[in-house]
Amino acid sequence: MTVTPEVAAIAAQLKDSQARMLDPHDAALIGAWAQTWTDLEPEFLDAVLSVMTASKTGRVSARQMAKSKKLAAAIDHARTSMVELLDQYDQNLAATLPQAATVTVTAHQAMTIAQVPESGIEFDAVTTGQLDKIVARATEEITASHLRLPVEVEAEMRRQLVHGIAIGENPQPVAARLVRKTGQAFNGGLPRATMIARTEMLDATREAAQEWEKKNQDVLDGWTWICALDRRSCAACVGLHGSDHPVSEPGPLGHQNCRCTRAPKTKTWAELGIPGMKEPAPILTGPEWFDNQSRETQDAILGATRAELLRTKQVTFDDLITRRKTDGWRDSYVPTSIKSLKLRKGG
Ligand SMILES: [Zn+2]
Predict the structure, then answer these.
(1) Confidence band (pLDDT; 50, 70, 90) for 117?
(2) Which terminus of the chain has a smaller tally of CB atoms within 10 A, N or C?
(3) pLDDT band at 345 (very low <50, low <70, confident <90, very high)
(4) 152 lies in a domain?
């Protein structure tokens, strides 16, 4: 059958309830991360100033920075703080993930029932064992990435700190600037931590949904890509909204932090053995929805250059979608770069 506006509305509710489950953990991490840097900053400032004060030449070499025990202790403190923050965050996420997966499967069933009301179809449930496996694998992925992250952030902090500097008349502002840059490196770890977690968590819920579809293939004809369709949506997700995919295909293979959902699409009434029923009208596709938006919204979603190329028919919506390969991660659909759009247009 088809994914109707009613089904898309259930998908939107699912997206919101997933966000309500994950947002508080992100908010807690954001607060704790900021507080941790506030606590660490004086320690770094003190360490950097000590190295500067000890210099008799008006310069501090990278070697002198690297040799400072105080600075090494501060960096160590930063890394162990990150490990603790992420450990707490991961525990919170692990406690939420089973619920997020269950809610997704329940919504999936509701989306299917909305398409075949009063048909008396019985559904097969995903077993607890299968859900546990999906949850365990996602938790492991998140933990592994979160174990690597503090090491990477530490290396960035070192790159900011450990190089030669001229002290000048007054060491205080020089040290403050250096510590500020180090803080930026520390804080740069935060959006990466939440992005990894959000993406893995949502992928796990998508996988749970796919498991449910596999069990109910006698009723289903695949799944439909549902995008949030708002100003924060990207060209790729809008372009794929309303597109149909086989049950065997994982997804939606959105970019990192993608909020799109997978809606089950039932077979036609005739295929389900119920003749004489009229098929309902489908939802608008993403490109159809896009055509009805104001110029301003179109520019917000695609960026002004892409939007103009599309409006003047120099490119199609399909041209705006690129499947990207990423080392160590799954493929994902992203907006085509303006550079390659212009190349395509010329060629
Ligand atoms: Zn998306």
Answers:
(1) confident
(2) C
(3) low
(4) yes
